[in-house]
Every structure is written in structure tokens, then in C-alpha cells.
Design brief:
CATH architecture of the largest domain: 3-Layer(aba) Sandwich
Number of strands: 5
Shape: elongated
Distance between the termini: 40 Å
Strand content: 5-15%
Strand order of the largest sheet: 1-3-2-4-5
Structural class: alpha+beta
CATH topology of the largest domain: Glutaredoxin
Helix content: 55-70%
Radius of gyration: 26 Å
CATH superfamily of the largest domain: Glutaredoxin
Number of domains: 2
CATH class of the largest domain: Alpha Beta
Amino acid sequence: MLRSFLRTVLIGLAIACAPAAAHATGSALSESQAQAVRDLVRQTLIDNPEILVEALDALKERRAAEQAEAHRAAIRAHAADLIRADDPFLGKASAKITVVEFFDYNCGYCRAALEDIRGVLAANPDTRVVLKDLPVLGDDSAAVSRLALAARAQGRYADFHVALLSFKGRLNQESALSVAAGLKLDVARLKKDAASKTVEDALARNLTLAENMGISGTPSFLFGDALFPGRIDPDTFAKALAAMRGAGK
């Protein structure tokens, strides 16, 4: 990929320089003159390879900025679905700052992020984290997400969520039901509610929302209109919250 990019830069510079040289002389370059320009460009890049590094860095920065802006536009376009009244969350319902997390119960980084999130929430009582089940790691994850969303009907989503993410090993329907029984949830009701249209609609909405915003991996955090893919450390979390407070979000 890098070699292809460098070749493209070299050819592009040669093509760009030839017309410029022709304009400077007031006439079209002959083939030998055009070749001389290309040779000069090539030798310049060989003698100053840092030019290529600078060009590659500039391209990466531009693409990152374009991607960030695309994410911001998508987040703004789907703001109404990002934070819904029936969304489960960690923290206080009255919190003024809302962060959104897309996660999968079988995602190791999501599990590792749990304690970071709980620590941040303890230190920032004005913040809550809205939780968006995004089971991207297979059918087992989807089954567990359905059970977790079903726990809302028993008012136990947060407890169940923490227990599931604290589970050692891969989660599936059987192990998730075992966790639910350990929490004294009504397992029969949980299984019934997990098959409800309400749960299915919530899960489908999350999947569609993530697709529309270009989110394909977990965890992914949204701070206002800024997307942070992957696990983030507590310091970055705190800085992102500070930015939201400064923006009045």
C-alpha cells in the first residue's frame, strides 16, 4: 500500500510539473524536455525522501479529518435515535452529561472498559452512559443482548449488565440465564420477554443506527458529536467529558 502510494505521488508530481514547466517557457515541452522534468522530480524525491513521508502524513491527517467530519454529520443526523427515553444506562437519570456506548457482551475490550466507566461515573455524578447493545460477535452475543434488554421489564438491566460483563468466559444464552438466576431475576419471564417485539425492535434499531453511523466495532463511545472507537483510558474519558461541559452538551 505504501509503495503504491509513493508511486502515485511520484507520477502525480511529474505530471503536475510538466505542464507547469511548459507554462513557464510559454510553449509545449518536447518529449525529451518532459522526460527531463520527470527525471528531476524523481531525483529530487530520491535525494529528499522526507517529502514522501510528509506527503503520506498529510494524506493520513486529511483522511482522518474527513472521516471524523463524516461521523459528526451522521451523529447529528441520527441524534433523535441515539438517546431515547427507554434506553438503558449507567449513572443517574438526572445526569446532565450523556455519553453513548455501543458494546458487545463478548467483546474483551468492552469488559475491560467496564471498570473504567464505573470509576469515571463515580467521579462525575453529572454523567451517565447510555448503553447500546451491538452484538457484532455472533449469535451468542445477540442472544445475550436480547436477555439483557428483557431485564428492563424487571428493572434490573444495570445489575444484569454489570454481571454479564464481569462473567469469565464466552457468554451464550445458557450462561447468561445462569447469571440471571444468580441475581434472582425471574428467569422464565426473562426468556419470554427476550422474544418480545419490544426487545427485537430495540436491538434492530441499535444495529441500524450503528450501520448508518459507520460503527462496526465495539466498544465505540460517542461524546456529543465526537466518536471514539475502541476502549479509551480514564484520562481520555475525563478530557472528553470536559470538552462536552465546555460545549454545554
